[in-house]
Amino acid sequence: MWQGIANLWRLKHLRNRILFTLFVIAVYRIGTYFPVPGMNQNALNQSGQNNALFNLLNMFSGGAFYRFSIFAMSVTPYITASIVVQLLQSGVIPRLEEWQKEGESGRQKLTQLTRYLTVCLGVIQAAGLTYTFDRQGLLLSHTWWSYAVIVIGLTAGDTLLMWFGEMITEKGVGNGISVIIFVSIISRMGQLGQEVYSAWFYAHPNQLFLNILKSIVLIAGIVIIFALIVFVQQAERKIPVQYAKRVVGRTVYAGQQTHIPLKVNAAGVIPVIFATSLLILPYTIATYFSNRAWAEAVMRYLYPNSVWYVVLEVVLIIAFTFFYTHIQINPEQLAEQLQKHAGYIPGVRPGKDTEEYIIKVVNRITVFGSLFLGFISVLPFLLLSGANLNSVYFGGTSLLIIVGVALQTMQQMEGQLLQRHYRGFIR
Known about the structure:
The chain is mostly helical and 427 residues long. It folds into two domains: 1-181, SecY subunit domain (Preprotein translocase SecY subunit); 188-394, Orthogonal Bundle (Preprotein translocase SecY subunit), CATH 1.10.3370. It has helices at residues 2-10, 12-31, 41-47, 52-60, 64-67, 76-89, 94-101, 104-135, 144-171, 176-186, 189-202, 208-234, 270-288, 293-301, 307-328, 331-340, 352-386, 396-419, and strands spanning 236-243, 246-248, 251-253, 257-263, 343-344. It is a multi-pass membrane protein.
């Protein structure tokens, strides 16, 4: 472990990437303390204590929402825009599907489209929040100029976070947007510890032994969940591949055996982030029309951590896992590459049969991977409910994001080290 850390600093290229990532994270955390003018922050904190949506937004913004900083909306508009663009690529808009196949130039066009859509969604979400706060009497001023300042400030902060994420991806370490969400959740760990202390030790000081025992059980449960997530995230299904003997010019290449590594959870934490961001939308829209019957029904049944919310979250996680896995793994392309290089799967004919075999294997392992993600997303909710910690908001989504992003970042640094013949972190 320590040898791996020492190796990181020996590589100037990787060291600069890490320092750049830490610098952007520091700027982001400082920015969460710069408030947008025009909001009564004390009233917002008081009204948000029993508002599940506000608690969720505060978790994913690293506390910036209750401080009503320029980063109060976090990266939710960008995630929503990414979901929309990826769904439209799947045969809905042929032009976007063509861009996807154009290589680097096509990806740049899709990225630009995502940026424009992020700004548009940011303006809509900022305007909706401003309207909601105005109806709840949380604004200090009710002039059109005050509304415009709040909307512009929130949208500018969201756009800046999108740029931060892209810069981390390009010049730093890891997926930038995931790293920002990771840092936001980690920054809330201290506050969560205080809430648990208040719910157990402060509220029941005479039950010291019982409180200590419950704390040990809670910590042990979290450690076990972390271990399970790491185990499944690292698990692979290896499909054996045999290459025939080839003659290229005067050189004879002997046949060799290898394998195709297929991850049990190839989609990573993307389905979890997508599902959470998508479920925020109906509740957010309902808050704008709270006096309507349908809005009251949505707010009654679909608030975060409610039974229906958890059920829909599991369903969406499973659906997005299948969707994103088939984006990441292209069985048709794999079968073509094997046939092109004189490779075949033992017992399976090259071509169409190989493609169907890979699809069958991918679907089987994705069933387990998606069910596991759904199970982990529900488990902390059940544990907190059983421990009478309903006031503490910390779902399995947060645990999955923390472990998933940490593993992805470590694997990226591992690859950089192995390219230069250094020993990495993962044995």
